[in-house]
Amino acid sequence: MPIYNAPTKDIQFVLHDLLKVSEQDIEGFEDLDRDFTGAVVEEAGRIASEVLHPLNVVGDTEGCVMENGVVRTPKGFKEAFEQMKEGGWTAMDCDPDYGGQGLPYIMHTAAQEPFVSANMAFNMYQGLTHGAYSAIYAHGSDEQKQKYLPKMVSCEWTGTMNLTEPHCGTDLGLMRTKAVPNGDGSYKISGQKIFISAGEHDMADNIIHLVLAKIQGGPEGIKGVSLFIVPKFMVNDDGSLGARNGVACGKIEEKMGIHGNSTCVMNYDEATGFLVGDEHKGMRAMFTMMNEARLGVGLQGFAQAESAYQNAVAYANDRLQGRDVTGAKNPDGPADPLIVHPDIRRNLMDQKSFVEGARAFTYWGAYLIDRAHKNSDADADGLISLMTPVLKGFLTDKGFEYATAAQQVYGGHGYIEEWGMSQYARDARIAMIYEGANGVQALDLVGRKLAQDGGKHVMAFFEMVKTFIKENEGNEALKKDFLDPLKAASKDLQAAGMYFMQNATKPNNALSGSYDFMHMMGHVCMGLLWARMAKAAMEALEGGASDTEFYETKIATGRYYMARQLPATSMHLSRINTGGDTVMALEAANF
Questions:
Q1: Of 67, 435, 463, 539, which one is the catalytic site residue?
Q2: Known catalytic residue: 417?
């Protein structure tokens, strides 16, 4: 059976050595000292290892079952969900006015990582609820907040996001789900939604669906979309549950992975719904939910890679195969362990340097969200808006790549289900698709985010990289291995941006290079964070840190990323510079 141990020391390093959370001028951060964050992360890690991880294979093999319209979750899920609720893990960063703990979002992120690594499918039940909470919190009326949020914060009621329909995914302007006014402020919602995570299950008393629909007579296309609260059970004025609403699960989708999460077809038959925000402004409200979800999905990408990596390392140390070419390392045994071989080391170093860089990238994103929301910082808000498609697209692409790389360490055993490695690859695969497929993330980045506010935010990012390099150019320990590679990669990224500007009259040139640009930007972000982590580790060693092995390992891992991974920006720039002609050369009939 696979193993999982929360990387609590590394999480603490990112929070304190890198981001220095307790020193930030953000409300609530002053309380985030090492003792407090350590206690939270250690307990989250314990629950992840002891409660959630043993259920991961159970969820994968049993899946969810639908009986007479009722969806049953896998054995043990309901009891584990009760433990999550009792421990307050569903309410960490939610508003205390509705029963939350009011902690910064970055602490929610730090606790979520072990939960996702241990059991991604299980954690989606509370993850979707958190997103639905955020949408209602930001756009709902005071009455709606009072009625729904307290029990969503506690996860007595869970939440969903209903966008996709059988005939439309990304192009939501094509949706057919309709909303007809009842005359009393409510609406009749009719239509079908598909791929609805946690759409029906047996772990909550009620499910609050957030549903996109078109009010009859509204504008055509995406401008006519509105957002509605559609509860599974109607909620009475006193908060008790009333009659069953006209919403039902049609079936559970049979999926490649995340079997423990009930992915449902949802049928709305004149179900009673309540408008969230303004008519025809549903996408604005939904994007509050989706942008948070996209950072969470980026976390899923590296969190699955983390679990897979831990198991690959254990196997590489245990499995005896061949001899070290420089001399036997296990002379009393029939062979040396796999980990002595350079190609295995390359594979594991690829995984390790990605996971640790991705953790820093994601937590930095969470820090920017806190700064934007708590300090009303427009620059932080613009920067996280720019980074969101990169976090989602790059980290999930690479997360899947390295989950399969971990599987490769096992050789044939990695392909056999009893070893458990295929689940990481199967579960990680969906993260590249949902919450906006990664190709769409790349188009959003290049087509919208680069030009946002006149290009202010991408220029601020370039300046951030430039400033870090300039401030540290006298640090010889950093210069060759970290600053010089970062400078070269940043120049590649700027050159790609310049190419897009110079070819603005030929949009296919930019769109054909958008995916490469997203990966370039992901690498540069990781390069910046690895350089910052290396500096932090060096400062810790200079300050007499007792755990020298940890900090020296951190520097060596970063050095590997800068030398072996970051140069990929040159390849991506070469692809971008070829333009769109080769991409668009064939007629559709010739594919």
A1: 435
A2: no
